[in-house]
Amino acid sequence: MSSVKSRGKYIIVLAAVIIVIAGIAAYYMTSTPTTPQISHVRFMAGVSGGGGYQFGTALIKIWQGRMPGVTYTLEATQGFIDNAKKMCGGVGEFGVVSAGEALKILRGEGSYKDCASKVYAILPLLPLTYFHVLVPADSPINSLSDLNGKRVNILTRGSLTEQLATQIFSILNINIVPAYLTHTDAAIALSKGEIEAAATTTFASQYKELALSRKLKVLSLTSEEVSKIKSALPHLSFETFNFSTQYEGTNPALVPVDWTLVVARSDLPESFVYNSVKAIYDNIGSLVESYPAAKDLKPELLLKAPLPLHSGVVRYYNERGIKVPDELIPKR
Q1: Which of 5, 40, 188, 262 could disulfide-pair with 123, CB 3.0 to 4.6 Å?
Q2: Domain count across the chain
Q3: Which domain holds residue 241?
């Protein structure tokens, strides 16, 4: 009789335990949102050796040490426009994209009508994107108009440099003979006289090295050229930049400025992007060691860019007490 009672008590206790476990499981299934686990991130960097590629390398170095369980792949592409096309197609979680192309993705304009996901800003690319044209210092070419009929490298097809160069030269009615060389090949060609000028939107190390052995100069816009470009491309601004800070012995020049951004796909979890951005700002010193231009990286800088921020960035800014303008908060 006692054994029957014991068995009955055992069954009651077991049933109670099962009910409790089932209740806990039901609670988490219904009350706790599931967050997709990110285990691999592809970073669309741009042309090998360019600013986006160098910045991506430095960012991944930080993330690899502070984002456990995540592997990163840095992918060289044809440039920032190519990055935009790839991310529109769902290739790449992070990438370096020009603000103009990112806005087209967000709005579904042109060739970006059927993108797999939108993209939002997480970090600015530094230094800012200064479109500029380099020529040997002893060249008779002293202005953009002097490039008419000359062999000018505008970087690889699909790059931001190619896009801006094509637009700007067309606006100014300058007919160049375009070359589509990488930074490495362009620096060699410029040193040998195989091309007469090289356009770029980043301070590539290859041109910095070339400036040490052959003096270079940067072509400056005239006020009339600024007016024509601004009328056709109102999203650009213009600045006189001291290029000797990047290429030894070069000159200040008035050039167009565009925003280039590190973006994240909109479907990446807020918590993942939040942790990614926090890891960067918590380790700025280490980032600067790998990428010196990051010394000017501050959260507030991104608020000047035209692209809305990823919700993970908004969360991080809110925690830092940084007010994000309504127009930069992504719409649900």
Answers
A1: 262
A2: 2
A3: 129-258
Strand, coil or helix: 251: coil
Q: CB–CB of 175/130 below 8 Å?
A: no
Q: Which residues pair with 151 in a beta bridge?
A: 177
Please tell me whether residues 122 and 98 are part of one structural domain.
yes
Record the tokens describing residue 70, joined without a space.
Answer: 């995540």
Instruction: Give pTM, 2 decimals.
Output: 0.69
Residue 55: what residue type? F
Q: Which two tokens stand for residue 240?
A: 């006189």
- Residue 261, classed as helix, strand or coil, is strand
Three-state SS for 120? strand
Last residue within a domain, chosen from 211, 228, 258: 258
d(CA 236, CA 257): 6
Query: Which tokens go with 154?
Result: 């505008």
Residue ending a domain, among 199, 225, 258, is 258
Give me the CATH number covering residue 185: 3.40.190.10
**226/37 Cα distance (integer angstroms):** 48
**Residue 311 located in a structural domain:** yes
Cβ count near 60 (within 10 Å): 20
Q: pLDDT tens for residues 105-144? A: 999 999 999 999 999 999 999 988 899 999 999 999 999 9
Q: What is the DSSP letter of 36?
A: P
Query: Do residue 136 and residue 254 come from a single domain?
Result: yes
Q: If you search the block for the tokens 């600067």, which residue do you land on?
A: 288
Opening angle at CA 320, ends 317 and 322, nearest 5: 55
Residue found under tokens 């690889």: 156
The verdict on 115 and 146 lying in the same domain is: no
Q: Convert the pLDDT of each residue in 227-247 to its tens digit.
A: 999 999 877 889 999 999 999
At position 3, the amino acid (one-letter code) is S
Q: Are strands 197-200 and 129-130 parallel, antiparallel or unpaired?
A: unpaired
Q: How far apart are CA 318 and CA 5, in angstroms?
A: 60
